[in-house]
Q: What sequence folds into this?
């Protein structure tokens, strides 16, 4: 772990924001290739729709790789506090290459420092839509750093409501299985659910820029709130046919296992 | 209970404490839903309480080690531990190759103590893959600096594990840290162990269970960039999950280079192990004194009598523990149904009355984990909760002891 990673984490986990408590340190703690002078950022997406959102709205970004970081920075410029929820670890020979995402995190830190967002900025939670690529990429010898997101990675609907947030906008081409469990909880709690979805396909951040905010129809995912949900979700991360996860993995063993 | 108190960390210092914990203790999951996983209090034990817990843990460790071998030599009893057929087959194979003795290993355990109205009780031993090293090693150091008159209650268990490997192996030996590589929750534990290995002059390798291959009695690592021999194995992948691997998983059960722990300790990881005590001829006075009565669920009236707790034989992190009044009706229904259908995979344990510890913000229940490495006490780790069930939503707390002259 490098000091640079820690410093970058704190640039993203803005201590003025209550939402930074949810920021995930995994990438920052495990990536070892932080550039001493971060490369220039690509152009940020315009996200004109974001400018119309009010302080009662949280955004969940679920677009691929570094585009998630760029979208987070664009949302920061629109007054949102980006909260990185990237929970995969960096490693040599990894299934999920986080180098572009990490480079953008490094370059974006300076942008965030300059914005100095305050405690009232609503959250924009950032996910990498490529967190769980096709299982055939996880060959023996590769380091399986695929990951999934869980409801406990997010604040509850009650916690969001306590800060006056009543609407969630999903910025994604599709609703991933794991995220559906999060969104369904928000919907059940009475939150207004919306989505920015490009036409057609999953698209890049640039394609999303001109998309419109529409109602999001969240359907109940399989095993919703079931005891075996976490197990079932993680069992989908089998390596060819097993590996980093093994197969029927019930629960992580840390923290008291 | 004067021998234990919860002392609040100075609020103005807490943000910095939390920040340091994330990176110094590799605490990468500091927030679980709406719960801040890093407790704002420290557990402060009297010196006498800390010494007694350490002493009790050492007695329990010695008895557990004896139970490991006694149960291994009784394959006729393995089915009663809630182990599936594949595991029982692997255990029989290991018995043939080991002559009934556990192979060379760094023996790591963590015993979970709870303050009760009748003194301390032990709810279980994490005999296979205990975690919490970063929290146990770093949080006390950070907290003691904030609370005058206190010191960490125990040593760094990760350092103790690394030193135990170093005592068995030449400098520069390669230790495979076997874990679910995709869980950042588990990777954080491995990162902390890796640091301890480096400080002990060892070379840690990050590996998934199927990154290891056994050839001619030796282990090799096939993970990209880390290929080569493996001289020791630290496993943070529960033994009962090994049969889910595609091939070669039985190799883990064979004698080989030093392991921590060897998977054969699964025999005492099962919470049904106490059901065998009377048939083993092994004296377990410490266990009998500290563990609440534990029986097969078919021998307890747990459905009507709220004085029983249901536990899965191979449960971890406190999940699926059935305490009727602290669960939602849906949670209780699920546990009850499972225990009725599969009683061999559960135990009923006489419920102890957790004695809450007061704080300015209300009472808290707690569990103090005491590590042992090769039979010696090696550190403390506490979890604190507002309800008398210590589960994944409990908060991690440092364990300190009041200085002798405090």
A:
């Amino acid at each position: 772990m490098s000091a640079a990673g820690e410093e970058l984490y704190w640039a993203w986990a803005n201590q003025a924001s209550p939402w930074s408590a949810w920021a995930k340190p995994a990438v920052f703690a495990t990536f070892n290739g932080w550039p001493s002078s971060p490369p220039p950022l690509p152009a940020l997406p315009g996200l004109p729709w974001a400018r119309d959102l009010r302080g009662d709205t949280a955004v969940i970004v679920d677009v691929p790789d570094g585009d998630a970081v760029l979208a987070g920075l664009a949302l920061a410029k629109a007054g949102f506090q980006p909260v990185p929820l990237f929970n995969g670890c960096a490693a040599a020979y990894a299934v999920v290459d986080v180098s572009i995402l990490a480079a953008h995190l490094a370059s974006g830190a300076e942008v965030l420092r300059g914005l100095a967002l305050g405690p009232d900025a609503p959250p924009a939670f950032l996910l990498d839509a490529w967190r769980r690529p096709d299982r055939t990429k996880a060959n023996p010898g590769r380091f399986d750093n695929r990951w999934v997101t869980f409801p406990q990675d997010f604040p509850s609907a009650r916690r969001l409501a306590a800060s006056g947030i009543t609407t969630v906008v999903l910025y994604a081409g599709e609703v991933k299985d794991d995220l559906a469990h999060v969104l369904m909880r928000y919907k059940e709690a009475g939150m207004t659910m919306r989505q920015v979805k490009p036409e057609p396909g999953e698209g890049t951040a640039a394609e999303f820029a001109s998309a419109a905010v529409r109602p999001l129809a969240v359907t109940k995912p399989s095993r919703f709130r079931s005891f075996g949900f976490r197990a079932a979700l993680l069992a989908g991360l089998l390596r060819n046919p097993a590996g980093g996860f093994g197969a029927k993995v019930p629960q992580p063993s840390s923290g008291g296992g | 209970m004067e021998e234990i108190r919860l002392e609040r960390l100075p609020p103005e210092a807490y943000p910095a404490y939390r920040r340091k914990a994330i990176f110094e203790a590799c605490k990468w999951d500091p927030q679980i839903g709406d719960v801040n996983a890093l407790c704002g209090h420290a557990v402060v034990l009297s010196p006498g309480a800390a010494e007694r817990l350490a002493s009790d843990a050492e007695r329990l460790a010695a008895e557990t080690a004896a139970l490991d071998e006694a149960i291994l030599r009784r394959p006729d009893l393995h089915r009663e531990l809630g182990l599936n057929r594949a595991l029982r087959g692997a255990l029989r194979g290991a018995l043939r190759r080991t002559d009934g003795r556990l192979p060379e290993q760094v023996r790591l355990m963590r015993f979970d103590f709870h303050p009760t109205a009748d003194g301390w009780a032990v709810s279980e031993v994490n005999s296979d893959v205990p975690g919490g090293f970063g929290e146990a090693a770093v949080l006390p150091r950070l907290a003691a600096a904030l609370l005058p008159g206190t010191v960490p209650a125990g040593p760094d268990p990760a350092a103790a594990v690394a030193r135990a490997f170093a005592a068995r192996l030449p400098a520069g030996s390669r230790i495979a840290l076997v874990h679910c590589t995709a869980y950042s929750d588990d990777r954080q534990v491995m990162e902390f162990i890796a640091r301890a290995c480096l400080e002990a002059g060892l070379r840690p390798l990050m590996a998934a269970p199927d990154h290891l291959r056994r050839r001619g009695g030796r282990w090799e690592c096939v993970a990209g960039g880390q290929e080569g021999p493996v001289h020791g194995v630290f496993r943070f992948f529960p033994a009962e999950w090994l049969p889910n691997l595609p091939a070669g998983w039985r190799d883990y059960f064979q004698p080989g280079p030093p392991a921590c722990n060897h998977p054969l300790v699964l025999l005492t990881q099962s919470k049904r192990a106490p059901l065998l005590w009377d048939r083993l001829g092994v004296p377990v006075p410490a266990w009998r004194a500290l563990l609440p009565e534990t029986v097969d669920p078919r021998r307890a009236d747990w459905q009507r009598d709220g004085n029983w707790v249901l536990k899965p034989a191979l449960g971890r992190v406190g999940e699926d523990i059935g305490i009727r009044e602290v669960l939602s009706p849906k949670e209780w229904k699920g546990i009850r149904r499972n225990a009725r259908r599969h009683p061999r995979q559960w135990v009923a344990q006489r419920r102890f009355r957790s004695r809450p510890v007061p704080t300015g913000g209300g009472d808290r229940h707690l569990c103090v984990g005491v590590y042992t490495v090769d039979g010696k006490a090696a550190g403390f780790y506490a979890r604190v909760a507002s309800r008398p069930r210590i589960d994944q939503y409990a908060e991690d707390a440092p364990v300190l002891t009041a200085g002798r002259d405090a």
Chain B touches chain A through 61 residues (CB under 8 Å). The radius of gyration of chain B is 21 Å. Chain B has a mean pLDDT of 92. Residues 293-350 of chain B form one domain.
